[in-house]
Amino acid sequence: MPALSALPFLKPAQLRSPRSPPGGQRRHTLPASEFRCLGPGDAASVFEIEREAFISVSGDCPLHLDEIRHFLNLCPELSLGWFEEGRLVAFIIGSLWDQERLSQAALTLHKPQGSAVHIHVLAVHRTVRQQGKGSILMWRYLQHLRCLPCARRALLMCQPFLVPFYQKCGFQALGPCQVTVGDMAFVEMQHAVRGHAFMRRNSGC
Predict the structure, then answer these.
(1) Coiled coil located at which positions (predicted)?
(2) Is the pLDDT of residue 200 over 50?
(3) 95 catalytic, yes or no?
(4) What Cα–Cα distance (Å) separates residue 3 from each residue in 11, 14, 20?
(5) Domains of the chain: residue spans and CATH
(6) Is 122 a catalytic residue?
(7) Per the residue annotation, which of 38, 96, 155, 166 is the catalytic one?
(8) Which tens digit of pLDDT belongs to each residue from 164-191?
(9) Which of 35, 65, 150, 203 lies at 20 to 30 Å from 17 by C-alpha?
(10) Is there a catalytic annotation at residue 191?
């Protein structure tokens, strides 16, 4: 039976492949899911997600809008955003640090000669939480760092209730962090970044 007679309610034009729209021009469609480094133009979207994620929990944000722009200008390669159909749904922002442990200065400085990546913030949009996106994004970010010759390890500070999450991501607790914010204390955690030369040769980085 011919296809058109089997589907009498469809006109021939409606059977046209979506890859070949009328006129022979390809429709521009946004990728369903995309990971890419962030730039200053993404700062407002980043801050919107971060503000909603942190204000209700701690009363403040790890990075304010001007600080987000600062790091995305200086070291965009140390950031990673997860976009779904063009909309930012999760992100990580980092900078380089040149000491063994984090100090108060690490909150605002980027040390270009450093070999430790200080992960300032990971946040997920409220509409897609509890879907495992945070751990997936962290895994992608650590893979991304293995493509960067400068990165030897990743450091972060978190509140104690988040330690199990980062341990599942492969981080090890180093003990209490020297950094304090108001009356909040943090645990410092570390993840080794290994195999730089091998990864660069075999990952297309």
Answers:
(1) none
(2) no
(3) yes
(4) 11, 12, 19
(5) 33-192 (3.40.630.30)
(6) yes
(7) 166
(8) 999 999 999 999 999 988 888 999 999 9
(9) 35
(10) no
Name the nearest CA neighbour of 186 among 176, 171, 200.
176
Secondary structure (3-state) at 118: strand
Sorted by sequence, the CB contacts under 8 Å of residue 8 that are 6+ apart come out as: none
CA proximity to 141, closest of 65, 73, 201, 193 = 193
Cβ-contact 108, 120 below 8 angstroms = no
The verdict on whether 125 is a catalytic residue reads no
Q: Point out the catalytic residue in the list 110, 118, 120, 191.
A: 120
pLDDT tens digit sequence for 20-35: 445 555 555 666 899 9
Q: Does the active-site annotation cover 56?
A: no
Cα–Cα nearest to 95, from 81, 83, 84, 79: 79
Q: What pLDDT shows up at residue 196? A: 44
DSSP-assigned beta bridge partners for residue 35:
82
Helix (H, G, I), strand (E, B) or coil at 60: coil
Check residues 59 and 19 and name the one with the higher pLDDT.
59
